[in-house]
Amino acid sequence: MTAAALPLPIAAVISATLLCGAGFALAGAVGAVRLRAFYQRVHAPTLGSSMGMFLILTSSILYFSVTRREPVFHEILIAIFLSLTTPISLMLIVRAALARDRLEGSHDVPPLASGQAAGREPANPREASGDEG
Amino acid sequence: MSGALLNVSILIAQLMLTTAMALYLFRMLRGPRAQDRVIALDAFYVTGMLLLITLGMRTGSTLYFEATAIIALLGFASSVALGKFLMRGEVIE
């Protein structure tokens, strides 16, 4: 079946999910440019990599399943992989940024929790911020 | 009718994703700090992957899945490596 022979309701659903997903991705990008502080900007792109990704993959699954008349589920793999890896990489980057800010002695970030640094005062502050990640 | 609807909506989605990539590129060039650039690069990868999926829908070919999976994998690996670099100043110690 070609794209032109799709039933109109199915084409409307595919278009709607695709446009919603792209809208989420665009909103995340606008947030990444407009928000002021780094720790605010971290949150915005996750719109695109969670809801945007899910909606666009859903519309792709629908499109290929209908046009090929068989279930096409390759995209599920990408969805699973991305939803597993995005939090990991974001956690790594944000912990690294936090460590860098503490290393610089910035007053915008909270100090280490008292339990974490109890019992020793390392001479090298880099060691203190590095041993937790 | 439905073909035209799909064509137009895929085109609009591609334009929106391209705009998103341009905004991330702006943030990546502008900075102001290294971690901003890394976050923007990570999101740039994901948005490029989404753009490739819409390209696959436009051409009606499933060949793009493999490229999409490779982009997702490399994006994760590069983000982890860059996060490690931000933390220590070295990737492999």
Task: Produce a short descriptive summary.
By secondary structure, chain A is mainly alpha-helical. Chain A contains 5 helices and no strands. Chain B has 93 residues and is mostly helical.
Structure description:
The complex is a heterodimer of chains A (133) and B (93). By secondary structure, chain A is an all-alpha fold. In chain A, 68% of the residues lie in helices and 0% in strands. Chain A contains five helices and no strands. The termini of chain A are far apart. Chain B is mostly helical. At the A-B interface, helix 1, helix 3 and helix 4 of A face helix 1, helix 2 and helix 3 of B.
Shape of chain B: elongated
Gap from first CA to last CA of chain A: 52 Å
Number of domains of chain A: 1
- Report helical residue fraction of chain B: over 70%
Number of domains of chain B: 1
**Helical stretch tally of chain A:** 5
For the record, what CATH class of chain B applies? Mainly Alpha
Q: Into which percentage range does the β-strand content of chain B fall?
A: under 5%
Q: Remind me, CATH topology of chain B?
A: Helix Hairpins
CATH architectural grouping of chain B: Orthogonal Bundle
Topology:
The complex is a heterodimer of chains A (133) and B (93).
Chain A: H1 8-34, H2 38-41, H3 45-68, H4 74-103, H5 125-130
Chain B: H1 2-30, H2 34-59, H3 64-88
Name the descriptors.
heterodimer; A: 133 residues; mainly alpha; 5 helices; B: 93 residues; Helix Hairpins; 86% helix; elongated
